[in-house]
Design brief:
The chain is mostly beta strands and 399 residues long. The chain contains two helices and 33 strands. The strands form eight sheets. Strands 23, 25, 29, 31, 32 and 33 form a six-stranded mixed sheet that branches. A five-stranded mixed sheet has the order 1-18-17-16-15, with no helix packed on it. A four-stranded antiparallel sheet has the order 2-21-20-19, with no helix packed on it. The protein is globular and about 65 Å long.
Length: 399
């Protein structure tokens, strides 16, 4: 069933006519495939980043929900059934994610812990297409003032429109009624919408149109801000974590990870591809280093670590480094580029990018539960004076 009520949100969205913008080159880095651990033939049709679990979730046309670490490891999957085209997170603190089902066009509430669909919202009375041109994209746009915590935006592949719904995900645990709020057309002439994602950190809405290899940036009300040529040819899913953009290709069967999106200035100075390493098997944590002003091009950098956390930070004159000096700090300082510390001493490139990693072998059980925090110091390329300290990231050692 469905209901229609007057809605001030609908009025605001409808009054915000999309603005035409010219497409520009993609601002991020070329994609690196991290989908090698997915089963052979897994066709990623939708993706989302789950901030609490720090993991990617993907859906496939063949009815599976899969989870993947951001470095491509720790794969698992659950069979749901049906032609699943998209996935989104409404409340990261809950166990629920929401799946877009094509034919009949519906939103499924899926419990990640129980591995079951708990209810279905059939929206085909509003949004419907042919067997393979119905709901293809979906995201949740949070709003603290909305009675249900925000609105669901669903993209229809046959006409390129985005339909906005309010689902009773806060007010009820069982109701399947819904409210249709409004619809909008992001870009006139683009119909093959295949992915939607809301970037909570920057308050931007993104849509993929794969027939045109187009990525469109919008406000939450659907006003177009930018258009870019998206790498690839068969882009389906899209997920964002900070300045890392993930896209799925349902023909090449890849999950591509792009860095520095939408610009280097929006990125954290120090980030890592995984938040934990197994003591039983060992593993590698890759660090992504980004230089921001006042760090000049080709500056030197040294990755350091602490097993005692980030506070109080180490004061080095005017430079603050969020690491507590301890035995591990001394180990990283005296063994740069040696043993498990890979490329921890080096230089930034002309664009202010660099990478390093920590490659750990299997470890004794006694280290399980240890947390290792890392950050970098940057040095002037000619005077070698300290220029800046980065943000910090923590890596956990798990069983």
């Amino acid at each position: 069933m469905r209901s229609r009520i007057f809605d001030w949100t609908a009025l605001a969205i409808a009054a915000s006519a999309p603005l035409a913008t010219a497409q520009a080159p993609f601002p991020g880095t070329p994609g690196v495939n991290i989908g090698q651990s997915l089963p052979a033939g897994f066709e990623g049709s939708g993706a989302v980043y789950h901030p609490r679990l720090d993991r990617l979730f993907l859906v496939s046309d063949s009815g599976y929900v899969a989870s993947l670490e951001k470095d491509g490891s720790f794969f698992s999957q659950t069979f749901v059934g049906g032609d699943l085209e998209s996935i989104t997170v409404a409340d990261p603190s809950s166990n629920f994610v929401y799946l877009a089902l094509e034919n009949p066009d519906s939103v499924l509430e899926f419990d990640l812990v129980a591995g079951v669909v708990t209810r279905a919202f059939d929206v085909s009375a509003i949004l419907t297409g042919s067997a393979n041109l119905g709901v293809e994209a979906m995201t949740f746009v949070p709003n603290a003032n909305d009675p249900e915590g925000g609105l669901f935006h669903l993209g229809q592949q046959s006409n390129g429109r985005v339909y906005v719904f309010r689902l009773p995900i806060v007010s009820s645990a069982s109701a399947t009624t819904y409210t249709f709020v409004t619809s909008y057309l992001p870009v006139a002439g683009l119909t093959d919408i295949s992915g939607l994602e809301y970037d909570r950190e920057h308050g931007r809405l993104y849509a993929i149109f794969d027939a045109n290899d187009r990525l469109v940036e919008m406000t939450p009300a659907g006003v177009v801000l930018n258009q870019w040529v998206l790498p690839g040819t068969d882009q389906e899913g899209i997920a964002i974590d900070g300045c890392e953009l993930f896209t799925t290709d349902d023909v090449l069967l890849q999950v591509l990870k792009h860095y520095d999106f939408p610009s280097l200035a929006d990125c954290h100075t120090f980030s890592q591809q995984t938040t934990r390493i197994s003591a039983t098997t060992g593993g590698t944590a890759q660090f992504v280093l980004r230089a921001q002003a006042p760090v000049p091009p080709f500056a030197g950098r040294l990755v350091l670590g602490s097993a005692s956390g980030s506070t109080p930070p180490l004061a080095l004159g005017a430079i603050s480094l969020p690491l507590v000096p301890d035995a591990y700090f001394q180990l990283t300082a005296s063994n740069a580029n040696v043993g498990p510390f890979v490329a921890t001493l080096g230089v930034f490139d002309a664009l202010g990018r660099s990478t390093a990693s920590l490659a750990l072998p299997p470890l004794p059980p006694a280290v399980v539960g240890l947390s290792l925090t890392h950050a970098y110091l940057a040095f002037h390329p000619t005077t070698h004076a300290l220029v800046a300290g980065s943000a910090a990231e923590t890596l956990s050692i798990v069983p």
